[in-house]
């Protein structure tokens, strides 16, 4: 009998996913300040309604880059399922804008658990179910440390990454890094979407589909660190989050509460560590002279 902890056994228990794809951008005609016409690319945005065991759950507005992983990560981050193994399959059909999720044993108390919704500060006013804050005090984060050199390597990797944002703008990007020896940070997954909450959910889905993922994890986002983003990062086993933007009061409070390192305003050699500074190994000499 196979050991259930082996990568092959874990992979066998993962759900079947379709590979639905849709164009990420479209061209439109614009007129500039000189009255000249041209065509530019803008991000696509489409609605995706999630059905769980034939029950309509929620409609997400998304770019649609990896919709199956988005759906899986959404269910995980809303704590409606405990692991990817709870799901038998996820089928996405863009012709009808629907994602059909089939679970192995259903979702316990789904009506009760999805009755209360909270409108978040996410792009487009995303909403999450009321149990998101429940149980955050029980989250145990790994003892992750990151050097300042690794932080700079991470920021530089994002700068060099080809993206929809560079060609069309108007999207958020998120990435998962693992820390390596020699002050390196390896990008494992990069996702863009019209909302940062969709991008982090997609990364959560990607993590859940990995039979094995070694190394300390660091999450990066172009968007601000709200309470939702901090909680979801902690749920993914991430102890360090980095943002090109800032942090909200609730995001800061939750980061301190769970012991997460929150770094914001990270561009070039500059950054601000808002919480969990003990996880950051400072190397001030790398920052250059102070202005």
Provide the descriptors you would attach to this structure in a database record.
single chain; 291 residues; alpha/beta; Cytidine Deaminase, domain 2; six-stranded mixed beta sheet; five-stranded mixed beta sheet; 8 helices; 17 strands; FdhD; molybdenum cofactor biosynthesis; cytoplasm; Sulfur carrier protein FdhD
Would you kindly provide a written description of the structure presented here, covering whatever features stand out?
The chain is of the alpha/beta class. It has two domains: 7-26 and 39-134, no CATH class; 146-287, Cytidine Deaminase, domain 2 (3-Layer(aba) Sandwich). The chain has helices spanning 7-12, 67-77, 110-113, 148-160, 164-168, 196-208, 227-235, 249-258; strands spanning 16-17, 25-31, 37-43, 46-52, 55-62, 87-93, 98-103, 117-119, 127-129, 146-147, 172-180, 184-193, 217-221, 240-243, 261-267, 270-275, 280-281. The strands form five sheets. A six-stranded mixed β-sheet has the order 12-11-13-14-15-16. A five-stranded mixed β-sheet has the order 1-6-7-4-5, covered by helices on one side. Strands 2-3 form a two-stranded antiparallel ribbon. Helix 2 (67-77) crosses helix 6 and helix 7 runs parallel beside helix 8 (249-258). It is globular, with a radius of gyration of 20 Å.
What would CATH call the architecture of the largest domain?
Answer: 3-Layer(aba) Sandwich
Q: Averaged pLDDT, please?
A: 87
What coarse outline follows from CA principal-axis ratios?
A: globular
Oligomeric state of shown chains: single chain
Give me the CATH fold name of the largest domain: Cytidine Deaminase, domain 2
**Main sheet, how many strands, which sense, barrel?**
6 strands, mixed
Tally of separate domains: 2
Quickly count the helices.
8
What are the low-pLDDT stretches, counting only 5+ consecutive residues below 50?
118-127
Going across the biggest sheet, name each strand in turn.
Answer: 12-11-13-14-15-16
Number of strands: 17
CA radius of gyration: 20 Å
Q: What is the terminal separation in angstroms?
A: 64 Å
What is the fourth-level CATH superfamily of the largest domain? Answer: Cytidine Deaminase, domain 2
The CATH class of the largest domain turns out to be Alpha Beta
* Helical residues, percent: 10-25%
Helix-strand topology string? HEEEEEHEEHEEEHHEEHEHEHEEE
Protein name: Sulfur carrier protein FdhD
Keywords: Cytoplasm, Molybdenum cofactor biosynthesis
Pfam families: FdhD-NarQ
Function: Required for formate dehydrogenase (FDH) activity. Acts as a sulfur carrier protein that transfers sulfur from IscS to the molybdenum cofactor prior to its insertion into FDH.
């Amino acid at each position: 009998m196979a050991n259930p902890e082996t990568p092959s056994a874990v992979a066998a228990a993962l759900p079947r996913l379709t590979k639905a794809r849709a164009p990420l951008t479209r061209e439109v005609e614009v007129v500039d300040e000189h009255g000249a016409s041209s065509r530019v690319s803008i991000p696509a945005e489409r609605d995706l309604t999630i059905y769980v065991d034939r029950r309509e759950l929620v409609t997400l507005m998304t770019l649609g880059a990896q919709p199956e992983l988005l759906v899986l990560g959404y269910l995980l981050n809303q704590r409606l399922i405990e692991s990817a193994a709870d799901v038998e399959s996820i089928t996405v059909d863009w012709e009808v804008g629907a994602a059909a999720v089939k679970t192995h044993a259903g979702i316990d108390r789904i009506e009760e658990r999805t009755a209360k919704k909270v409108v978040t500060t996410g792009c487009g006013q995303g909403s999450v179910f009321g149990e998101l804050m429940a149980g955050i005090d029980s989250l145990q984060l790994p003892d992750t440390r990151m050097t300042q050199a690794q932080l700079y390597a991470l920021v530089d990797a994002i700068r060099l990454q080809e993206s929809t944002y560079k060609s069309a703008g108007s999207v958020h990007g998120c990435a998962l890094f693992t820390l390596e020896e020699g002050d390196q940070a390896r990008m494992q997954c990069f996702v863009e979407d019209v909302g940062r909450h969709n991008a982090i959910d997609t990364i959560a889905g990607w993590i859940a589909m990995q039979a094995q993922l070694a190394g300390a994890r660091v999450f990066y986002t172009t968007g601000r660190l709200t309470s939702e983003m901090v909680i979801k990062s902690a749920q993914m086993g991430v102890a360090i989050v980095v943002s090109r933007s800032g942090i909200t009061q609730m995001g800061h409070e939750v980061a301190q509460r769970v012991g997460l390192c929150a770094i914001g305003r990270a561009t070039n050699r500059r950054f601000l560590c808002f919480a969990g500074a003990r996880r950051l190994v400072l190397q001030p000499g790398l920052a250059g002279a102070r202005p």
